[in-house]
Specification:
This protein is mainly alpha-helical and 177 residues long. Helix content is 61%, strand content 3%. The protein has two domains: 1-78; 81-177, Arc Repressor Mutant, subunit A, CATH 1.10.10. The chain has five helices and two strands. Strands 1-2 form a two-stranded antiparallel sheet.
């Protein structure tokens, strides 16, 4: 009879443990859903800000072009971007000074590590002296992703970043904008 009592006690403990595991799984599912919604909201806000900056840059460029035409000065084609306001697509001869200072720091840090293993956004964030808080790391990750999308960096499948082929050769080259 004692064996039956011990077995019953073990079965009761197993049932409690099983219930706790299911509760934790459900909490993890809820947390994952909340995290996914927060990531989507962050992406939307980053895109909205970048779209606004690009629209303002185009507006400023158009205004500048109209003013130059009215003054009958020699017309110089206005860039589709303003230095430091948005990340232009990388092209030969375009200096890193066309980027915002934060993007220049990211590019410089990775250029210094050229030939080494790719790094995570958290490692990039600590170089300019930022606290590696999730918000700061996410900001650096967003900038690094944008640089990778525009050809300045390489983003690995693992989400790690390394210097791209072109910008490493000329981040300080060219005239300053």
């Amino acid at each position: 009879m004692r064996g039956g009592v011990d077995l019953g006690l073990l079965e009761a403990r197993e049932a409690v443990a099983r219930e706790r595991v299911e509760d934790l799984r459900e909490a993890a599912r809820r947390a994952a859903t909340v995290l996914e919604a927060a990531e989507i909201e962050l992406d939307r806000r980053v895109i909205a800000r970048e779209e606004l900056v690009e629209a303002l840059a185009v507006s400023v460029a158009e205004t500048t072009a109209v003013t130059e035409t009215e003054a009958e000065e020699e017309s110089v084609p206005a860039p589709a971007w303003l230095p430091g306001t948005t990340v232009p697509p990388w092209q030969e001869g375009l200096p890193a000074t066309a980027l915002a200072p934060d993007c220049q720091r990211i590019l410089s840090m990775l250029a210094d590590r050229s030939g080494q293993e790719p790094v995570r956004a958290k490692e990039i964030a600590v170089v300019p002296g930022l606290e590696p808080t999730p918000a700061k790391v996410e900001g650096v990750r967003s900038k690094a992703r944008r640089l990778a999308e525009r050809g300045w960096l390489v983003q690995e499948a693992s989400g790690m970043f390394s210097a791209g082929c072109g910008p490493v050769a000329g981040p300080a080259g060219g005239s300053s904008a």
